[in-house]
Structure to design on (69 residues):
């Protein structure tokens, strides 16, 4: 919709090109930000899984030691 709006603006070709470049850079920035936020979230999930596995192992070792007389 924005591209169509820029196309029909009563401006010279170079002005339309300038606006189009700005739109492309804005979309590129949004995609980069989205990927960065997603990667940060996924890395946090991996760290949590590792920490959960460590805690589970400690609990299992504790239970084994407690069961043995």
């Amino acid at each position: 919709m924005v591209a169509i709006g820029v196309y029909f603006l009563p401006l010279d070709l170079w002005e339309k090109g300038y606006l189009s470049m700005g739109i492309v850079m804005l979309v590129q920035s949004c995609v980069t930000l989205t990927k960065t936020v997603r990667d940060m979230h996924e890395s946090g999930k991996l760290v949590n899984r590792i920490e959960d596995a460590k805690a589970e192992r400690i609990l299992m070792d504790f239970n084994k030691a407690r069961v043995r007389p």
Notes: The chain is about 90% helix and 0% strand. The first helix runs from residue 2 to 7. The chain has a mean pLDDT of 89.
